[in-house]
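Async update (no meeting this week)

Hi team, since we skipped the sync, here's where things stand on the single-chain job. The sequence we agreed to prioritize is pasted below, unchanged from the tracker. I ran it this morning and attached the output directly underneath so nobody has to dig for it. Comments welcome in thread, and please keep replies under the output.
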Amino acid sequence: MSTSSPISPRLVKGGIVTLDPSTTTVQSVIALQYNPDSLSRSLQIQSMPGGQDGVRVDALRLRGPAIETIKLEAELDATDYLEFPTLQENKSFVQFGLQPQLAQLEMLINPTVETLLSDDSMANAGTLEIIPLEQPLTLFVWSKSRVVPVRLTDFSITEEAFDTQLNPIRAKVSLGMRVLSIDDLGFQHPGGHYFMAYLSNKESLATQAKSVALNVLGLGGLP
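Output:
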């Protein structure tokens, strides 16, 4: 019997949402089973290049939004589901372990078989110019204040335990993502709208941080 209190706060989970890039129809919602303890972000400043041959440049100008990358490690564990194998919602874990959940993540970086066969058929018929396949628009969701378009850049899986059928029942997934800005998508693309909302929220949050007096920094005034 569950020991959690009915009035305890519901834990919000991070995850990934995929959308049709043309219609913005939600295609899939993937919630992390356990939120990782840490999430690392790095921001590469898009500043103006330094002057060459004595040419002066404006060092305070920015060429565009910072290039942001996100990395996290998520854990998956089927043990709790295997404890009650007769429950309908647990049957896939009994039969396949974590393979469906891992496959769902892997399909974020793979085209479907149907798409590949369709493109091959059209190419053989001479009716298609081969161009890179367009994947769904991927959003990384980390609370309601951080919903941001991303492209997966790094993806690794470490399977750590297996059942008697060699289905993985415990795994770690490492995800690396690059935030897609209006420089990547443009202002009119749905992903561009999500990025602008993300940046606008940053601006709003920045106004909540209190500015301190100069004497806190040991200064009586600026020279």
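Quick observations from my side:
Residues 18-44+63-109+135-203 form one domain.
Confidence is low (pLDDT under 50) at residues 1-5.
Reply here if anything looks off.
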